[in-house]
Amino acid sequence: MAEFIVMPKLGFDMREGVLVTWLKQEGDSIEKGEVVAEIESDKATLELEAQVSGVLLARLEEEGAVVPIGAHLAIVGEPGEDISALLAEHKSSDEQAEGAAPTPAKPASAEPAPASVSEAAPAATVTETAVSAEYPGGVKATPVARRIAREHNVDLRLVHGSGPEGRIRKADVEAYLAAPTPVAAPISAVPAGPETTEIPTSRLRQAIARRMTESKTAVPHFYVTTEIDMAPALALRKQINTLLPENQKVTVNDMIVKAAALALRDFPNINSSFAGDKIIRHNRINIGSAVAVEGGLLTIVQKNTDITPLAQVAADNRAMIERARSGKILPEDVTGSTFTVSNLGAFDVDHFIAIINPPEAAILAVGTAQQVPVVVNGELTIGVRMKATISADHRVTDGAEAARFLQAFKAILEQPLKLLL
Q1: Structural fold of domain 3-99
Q2: 394 belongs to the catalytic site
Q3: What is the mean pLDDT of the chain?
């Protein structure tokens, strides 16, 4: 039976993607999981794998097209199969999309942030169930409410539901649309002319700007800093790496990531997301690491970090970083994080604070481990110290809890054999 290949959702806030290149022609045989096209999200150029096996009977979008998530890209079926019904369905969905006249989205406000970091399946339709994976955590909304939200480009995560168990109804979306729109601060005029150079903003930079503005305006940040004796961790790393080949060595960042995951076991509240009238605690600890790439940052995600051996954490991170910097990132590399580490230690940075990556509740900023004068047992000596600062969502946690998390994180790195248990 013929089926559609659709534009997948490849990032938390992805709404559309660019079909860059078709790698298969009509009439070609394809297997499920085989790469059929390259698509570009806000973050990177990614390989699109076929969601079904069969023959590529029709390509429905041209190269260069901007395609919403869940929209039809191609039809796959048996050779000679009648696909007229699917073509009619595709045409109908296109006409509906063209007939809708969405209005600009309302600016981010201090309304509830996304509920979870779980990634979505293809875009929802008006016949979907009340609980949908279209939004993290499954926003409950009636079909009519979803239709109105789509027509007006409203993010349902920002709408308060008045129905049973917080279910969003038609009246809730209409009330949101009728509410006064916050006035954004004006952008100062920038002079243009022969003394300036205009550089187009990349999709990645636009995504960073959008998400960081949302985070700093909607999430009440607070910050706690500690200083860690890194001499034991560096000594253990040296021992470990003498036993490993060059391409399998453990980095300081791998140890930091593992230590953060182990500390989070005792602080599930920090491994959570704010969802208005509730806090969503994540049952897995997936640590994201911010990676500098051309034009911006990507966050690669090591899954189940607390129960993954340190050597495997290092291998996973190394492979994902290589893919990120070569433009071959996979969807699973950048989705599902529950807590993020931003490490500028390689840049001789003493201390900095990071912006929370919504819908996470916290992010850890790490500086350089460096030799400094310290007092030990009343005597001045040389030690190796590293500063770490947690930025936390005050709607989810408080200063004392964040401080205790940092104490646990510090204790692990100062007794690093815990990383190997």
Answers
A1: OB fold (Dihydrolipoamide Acetyltransferase, E2P) (2.40.50)
A2: yes
A3: 83
